[in-house]
Q: What sequence folds into this?
């Protein structure tokens, strides 16, 4: 029986202010982990399905912690890792990074022709995590860079506010509930044109 490492991570939002920047960051409030024996063998397909099932079950069992925050379950064996998550926060304008990750700094850019030039870098406490939320900057800028432990993501000014979507959340999938408008095609009336032929009378 293979053994898996299962982790539960809970992220809670907090407003963080440094220099001329104020943004939403996250504290990892609750972390628990344990080693579990799986029921099935080590066949890759069965193992992957069971990892996904167990991660979803962990999220479901801890859904009470999703109130204004996120719960992520990570289960892994050597060579395979599955992550499931669920939750939401009360107020969010954009996604600063695709998943919760430790933040290193915020870089402010100005455009110089077609190039982005970094003009300022602001370090942030590395015990903080970045994901979605809001950010306000009290100085002129064209783009920002969110530098994390896993890489750099650049967002232009227009990307810092995304209009809200009506979405339904099931597990970790978010589907936009947009109504499809069916357009009725107008039937064209066939116009029969009768040609009146004049017969010439023979004299």
A:
């Amino acid at each position: 029986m293979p053994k898996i490492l299962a982790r539960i991570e809970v992220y809670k939002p907090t407003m963080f202010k440094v220099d001329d920047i104020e943004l939403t960051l996250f504290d990892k409030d609750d972390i628990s982990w344990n080693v579990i024996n799986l029921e099935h063998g080590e066949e890759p397909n069965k193992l992957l399905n069971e990892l996904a099932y167990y991660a979803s079950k962990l999220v479901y069992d801890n859904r009470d912690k999703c109130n204004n925050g996120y719960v992520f379950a990570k289960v892994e064996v050597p060579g395979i890792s599955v992550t499931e998550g669920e939750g939401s926060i009360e107020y969010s304008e954009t996604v600063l990074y695709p998943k919760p990750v430790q933040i290193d700094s915020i870089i402010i850019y100005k455009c110089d022709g077609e190039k982005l030039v970094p003009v300022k870098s602001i370090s942030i406490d590395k015990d903080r995590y970045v994901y979605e939320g809001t950010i306000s900057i009290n100085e002129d800028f064209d783009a920002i860079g969110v530098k994390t432990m896993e890489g750099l993501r650049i967002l232009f000014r227009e990307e810092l506010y995304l209009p809200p979507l009506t979405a339904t959340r099931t597990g970790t999938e978010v589907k936009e509930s947009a109504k499809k408008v069916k357009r009725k095609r107008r039937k064209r009336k066939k116009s029969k044109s009768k040609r009146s032929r004049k017969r010439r009378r023979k004299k």
Remarks:
- Residues 44-61 form the longest helix (18 residues).
- The chain has one helix and 14 strands.
- The chain has a mean pLDDT of 80.
